Amino acid sequence: MTSFRPIADVAGAGSGGEFDPRVATRRRRVATAIVIAALVVLAGIGGAFTPTFLTFDNLLVVIRQASITGVIALGMSYVTISGNLFALSAEELAILTACIFGWLMRAKFGLALSLIATLLFAGLGGAVQGGIIALGADPIITTLAFGGFFRGLASVVSQNQNILLGTDAAQWLGTGRPLGVPTQSWAFLILTPLAWIVLQKTRIGRVLVLAGANRAAARSAGLRVGQAALLGLTLLGLCCGLAGISAAAQFGQAVANLFQGLNFDVVAAVLVGGIALRGGQGSPIQAALGAAFIALLQNFMLLNDFSSGWRMTVVGSLVALATCLFHILQRRRE
Amino acid sequence: MQSDGAVLRMRGISKRYGSVTALQGVDFSLAAGEVMALLGENGAGKSTLVKILAGLERADAGTIEIGGVLRRLRSPSQSLHAGVAYVTQELSIVAPLSVAENICLGSDRHALWSRRRLDRVVRRHLDLVGLGDIDSATPAGDLSVAQQQLVEIARLLSRNARILILDEPTAALSDAEIEKVKAVVRTLAAEGRSIIYVTHRLGEVFEIADRVTIFRNGHSFAPMEVKSLDVDRLIEHLLGRRLEQMFPERGSISGPVVLALRDVTAPGLREPVSFDLHKGEILGLAGQLGSGAAAVVRAIAGVTPRLGGTIALHGRPLDARSVRNAIAAGIAYCSDDRKRDGIFAVRNLFENFTSPALPRITVGGVLSRGREVKLASDLAAFFEVARDRLGSHAGKLSGGNQQKVALGKWLGIEPSLLLVEEPTRGVDVGARAEIYRHMRGLANQGLAVVFVSSDNQEVLGLADTVATFFRGRLVRITAAEHLKPEELLRDVTHPEAVAAGGPA
């Protein structure tokens, strides 16, 4: 069984001509194209009506805003693509890692050790959830429970008070601007293509996609489907760790009420990016674009004095609209 | 419309699924108080017809008259309203609710129920289905499968169903339970209701049916009085003429033994099974649903545990505790449901074809695009899937091409044993012949092949050796060329065993 007969004329083989490959390619690009178009339209409208909108300084603000949500949305896109919907513990894990990082820094463990220990903890926090989901637990319920656990632990670690880092050693991580771009944004800009490459080009990334596309088929093809949930949640945990560290470093302190509403923002980024909820389709780049779009919209509304209530209303209806647009249409195509 | 006692009249019913014609201008009629058996091989169209009648599928053309009135049946509730009830193999019993609650489920005639009132309402229906001795307050989940089936029938009777469709009602039942279900069918017919009885078991036809309608390749034949038939004539009608050109030439088998089973027992088997399979040989396991044929390949493939006996692959003991183990040993297994676990519908064919062979296209954990394209193109070429379709989603392909993908992806692991359940289910006639040719081609190249099929033509046409199964037992193993179609059909349906003492 080592060699296969080449068939001279494959063009006439198979039955029927029901398929045009260009159509499928187009359809797969459609979600990404819609988000990019929406970004451009929003930027155009914003620039026309609000003079301060399309300035370099303001765009840096937007990118920085998008970065925290965006980095976590990259991790979340892995979870969604692996067929495990969403992890509703991202916000809580980010808070907990901020508190742990603050605590370690205050206890004078030094920057390097604190960084490594915090990231290890963040990865472990994700991996434990991923392991439980891999065993067959429901992802939403599991992560909801762990969210409560992480939040409680954050209160315990911080004793509900501000943890002052007590040193400027980490400050550069949160406020530095290499080449004029904030560190968080560097992380976002570097991690986005990296996340895409891992998913697209590595074997483990392929296993994750296939397990998300059809878990039963992946299992009967001999793939370790448990790896998918494990990888997705672990990477998400690391992303949450990065967000927590950067927030603690930026403010010089950690507190248990950071990142309010982050879970919703991250889920919104994934949905607005048009990633299919049932898994097996989509790319981290879509989540990144979704995060950028929401940050741009938020910024536009802030500059135009929308109240927080209106901002939330608008973003909420945007997510509902994206859900209708992408997800109902995708289902109809089946 | 003149009345000739027909409660149901379907005329010119046609139905296509994509490129597959399931029914072509089929006529069907049913008289009051009769039991009509529907017979036909898999894919002959009988399931499609009853689904159209039950409102689960819509016909592309044709008319349906019920009680002389033209009806449009577009949903199960419209069908039920018209008096048609469909009892499927998958029961819709709610296990934690009581028998009485299950019967009344979904009927909204009363807002408040007391246990006594419920019992009074359902008692008549329970008596009718032979469950008169059951306490209607028992949770339905505590009943046997046969009893649950009868409860389901009682529920449909309580909605005043005049026409009952029973789709292989006895497939999952024991002999004693089967007798009970048959008795109920006769009682209901005597009461003036009409019953459409879909079955694979010829014996049952003689025992309970008044007439029989035979389906073949999407056509139906005029109903025949069962009294005027015997088993041999029924088999003759059922098989029709052979389609010899569908099947490739057999090769000669002289290779070493690849797979040896000795006294293997597994879930779904009632007696141990032993056989040898040689290099280049195609073994067909023939049997209906629940016959144990599928249980054998599932145990070899590591899908279900082997409970006893030994399996040897290339003379070495094989202990596949999981599908992964079996794959590592060079065993490829295709289930009978490719949509469920055979293809990745939302991924392209490159990814589908290479999915079991990721190590082969990976260098140091990184996928090699070149190797992936090469492997997928080779497999596509071998299975005659057009190369320009490799970029398309597997879900967009026809059933035949999907099956080629589900089969073809396994060649990437260079298997020595290929196990296939129902290799051409849901595949149109043209692609069927191609798949047979490819399976024979693989055997000629030295692959040992075992396939399970409830399609007797397929078994006789494709296999070198045939093993017949009936109710968890291996009936016999014989060379396909020495097996007559009639013998095969008898083996897998055992008409005499079932109909012993019947009117045949």
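The first strand of chain A starts at residue 163 and ends at 164.
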